[in-house]
Amino acid sequence: MNTTIQIVTAEDLMAMSSDSHFELVKGELRPMSPAGSRHGRIISRIAVPMGAFADKNRLGEIFGAETGFILATNPDTVRAPDIAFVRTERLDAVGDIDEYWPGPPDLAVEVISPNDRIYELDEKIDDYIASGVRAVWIVNPKRRTVTVHHPGEAPIVYTEADLIEGGEILPGFSIAVAGIFNPR
């Protein structure tokens, strides 16, 4: 039997019904399940202070979990990190658009879900780094760690005893790893 795989483009994905959520990886649709409550709480614990800091210091914008970023074309890859940050100068160059962001964010944050597969997570990290993302934070609720990936460098694992700093991407920003995981 001859099976033909239909390649989907970013434009096709944008035109689809918003009832279902997908990412697009090398032209192939990948379903995204809704996140659980702990996952959403952790996202909020990072996004709220990060967004307030970025706004106050006019550094850029935080984008929510369903925002698509075009990481590659022909075939297209559109990823939707749990949290994304884009610097002001890049925002100004693109403007306020309704389409997927044309390129990578400066920072992508992914919170591991119970059903995430390691090879898929590694693939996301590779896609982000290859597209020009300057840092990827992988938040692991089970181990209560955050692993930070930078292009060309070994990953750094932060534990609940550590602070993560924004570095060149978010200068002056820091967040306590313990505060990300500990319920109020």
Q: Can you tell me about this structure?
A:
This protein has 184 residues and is of the alpha+beta class. The chain has a single domain (10-181), classed as tt1808, chain A (Alpha-Beta Complex), CATH 3.90.1570. Helices cover 28% and strands 27% of the residues. The chain has five helices and twelve strands. It has a six-stranded mixed β-sheet with strand order 3-6-7-8-9-10, sandwiched between helices. It is globular. The model has no long low-confidence stretch (mean pLDDT 88).
Short recap of the structure:
28% of the residues lie in helices and 27% in strands.
What's the arrangement of secondary structure elements?
Elements: H1 10-15, E1 22-25, E2 28-31, H2 37-56, E3 60-63, E4 69-72, E5 77-79, E6 83-87, H3 88-94, E7 107-111, H4 118-131, E8 135-140, E9 145-149, E10 156-158, E11 163-165, E12 174-176, H5 177-181
Parallel strand pairs: 7-8
Antiparallel strand pairs: 1-2, 3-6, 4-5, 6-7, 8-9, 9-10, 11-12
